[in-house]
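Subject: for your reference before the review

Hello V.,

The reviewers asked for a structural picture of the protein, and I figured it would be easier to keep everything in one thread rather than splitting it across files. Below is the amino acid sequence we used in the manuscript, unchanged from the supplementary table.
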Amino acid sequence: MTESSRHLLDPELLPLVDNLPPFSVNDDNLDAMRGREVVTGDPGSRGVSRDEVTFSSADGTEISALLYTPEAGAGPRPGYLHIHGGGYVMGSALGSDINNINVVSKLGAVVLSVDYRLAPETSIPGPLEDCYAALAWLFGNADHLQIDTTRIGIGGESAGGGLAAALAILARDRGEYPLCHQHLTYPMLDDTTGSPENPGDPLVGEFVWTRASNKYGWESYLGDAEPVAPQVPARLEDFSGLPHTWLSTATLDLFRDENITYAKELMRAGIVTDLIVYPGACHGFQMLPGTRVQKRYARDHLYGLAEGLGVELES
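And here is what came back from the structure prediction:
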């Protein structure tokens, strides 16, 4: 990092970066990072039911997920598979509880949030196969949940966005579960980002998720495997046949350029793609409530997901 990008940061986000100083995730602090407390919502107050479900992954491992369903109304309704972030090495489905409750409450969708296995304990293909098993469960239970299988989408943030992009590729290639939409918030797509071969813009990646953390996350996730698509979406050569896409990133996020490049490749392949770049924002910017950019993101995220899932929202 040749110079600080602090002067480019939206002033409203300074409390976020001051409370989350630069850190590097590694073997020594991973347990502590995973042990951070998460804030959960009150689904009942929003007319939402939250239950835990389990299913088997490709290797027979039992995987759990949180199922959010509307308490009122009847189908057919859309389904959304949410995949949490955390650099492939941390995070949980419960950490996205408030956002997933909001999606169900506002869109009337059924949301399944999967607790895929984390690296380095489980490297590829395990985490992606866990997500594929979650998608299979959602399709397999569509009738019971009153889900319209023509309106099932997937999405996530950071590593969750990377897994969602990988899952969209895998679902396309296997041809079992057609997706109508992928919803990607600063997805983690390219294992070379921030490396000596691809250092990128020195003004990105200073805050929250750094080059050092990115190196650890990708090395943990890849293990001994070759970095190829679908597990590394940025290495994809054929973008045809992928679903309608909403992709957002931020001007100071380490993933900014790989995100823009990925969106351009989707557009070049004729995929309807909505790309949003939030100025003055960094990785995790939406975690600080009440800022103008967070409010804009919340609105864009919800309306973009509504469009992708075929839901009419009042303006």
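For the response letter, the relevant points are probably these. The mean pLDDT is 96. Strands lie at 48-56, 62-70, 77-83, 110-114, 147-157, 181-185, 244-250, 273-278.

Happy to draft the paragraph if you're swamped.

O.
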